Amino acid sequence: MNDSPKLAPNARDRGHSTNLVGVPTGLLASAAYNDYPVPLRIAGVREMYGSMFEMLKQSESAEEAAEVFQDYMGVVFGLEQEQLEKGAKADVPKERRRFRSSYMRLLRGWGFDSNSAEGAVLKGWVESRFGLFPTYHKGVIDRVSGNGWVTYVEEKMSSRFHNNSIHTQLDLLYEFCQWAMARYFLKGRKHVRLYRGMNDFDEHQIVERIDKRSFVIRLNNLVSFSDDREVADQFGDYIIETHVPASKILYFLRLIPQAPLKGESEYMVIGGDYTVKASYL
């Protein structure tokens, strides 16, 4: 691997001074947090929606829990089945359709293009809840006054996605993911080994070089990984490998099998600084 990646500018400017998860943003954004993670809870979500978690406790499998979650979201947020799956029914006249923003619509948009408007809304949710600034959206975001930041803010505030408590929907998705991983998927583990393929380091810059193949890298505040190295190989010449704490996972396909991501091995990971091992194909 060559030495072309440059150190990230403004290495301390990683996020807001406050967030909604009870861990200082500076610590949450650090590689040290990833080594010694603590559980994260978005303030008030489990208390406000305790009935959902009571119903989830009755599930006997991950698949049954996913059904409970989707049914609950459909009732609370008025999401009709076609909105959760493929969009409005073709035989319903446009003037009679009532569009309600849906977490599934955002996942679908992210799966198609993480730099889409849906991707901006998801990155905006991470910024709001975890305090982490995005570093890339259709271009490098290196300062608040820059064009990249302006584009990101315009898209994350789009009225198309903020008519149905979309941030609350994402809060519940995150909390459900944390609950389900602890109950069904992790079996006591705190980390998941994941891989990401990249063609360059424009989106994720190097913060510190440890040795020729080990780095501390600044990830975008929301980014896709894979738990299958062969799948990651398809997305770039550089392959980075890291251990992601469970508390920084927003979503993975096995959580709700109906959701449309790139493949069965994709994970949506909350960013910050990560210690990674990198290789060049």
Can you characterise this structure?
This protein is α+β, with helices and mostly antiparallel strands and 281 residues long. It has one domain. It is 35% helix and 19% strand. It has eleven helices and six strands. Strands 1, 2, 3, 4, 5 and 6 form a six-stranded antiparallel beta sheet that branches. Strand 2 and strand 3 form a beta hairpin. The longest helix has 20 residues. The chain is globular and about 50 Å long. 38% of the residues are buried.
Which properties best describe this structure?
single chain, 281 residues, alpha+beta, six-stranded antiparallel β-sheet, 6 strands, 35% helix, 19% strand, disordered N terminus
Helices and strands, with pairings:
Blueprint: H1 25-28, H2 31-35, H3 45-48, H4 50-57, H5 62-76, H6 81-84, H7 103-112, H8 117-130, H9 147-156, H10 166-185, E1 191-198, E2 205-209, E3 214-226, H11 229-232, E4 238-245, E5 249-252, E6 266-280
Antiparallel strand pairs: 1-4, 2-3, 3-6, 4-6, 5-6
Helix pairs in contact: 4-5, 5-10, 7-8, 8-9
Biggest β-sheet, characterized? 6 strands, antiparallel
How many helical elements? 11
Content of β-strand:
15-25%
Distance between the termini: 9 Å
The number of domains: 1
Structural class: alpha+beta
Question: Which value, in Å, is the CA radius of gyration?
Answer: 19 Å
Number of strands: 6
Give the helices and strands as they follow along the chain.
HHHHHHHHHHEEEHEEE
Average pLDDT value? Answer: 87
Unreliable runs, pLDDT <50, ≥5 residues? 1-8, 86-90
| Rough outline | globular
Helix fraction, binned, reads 25-40%
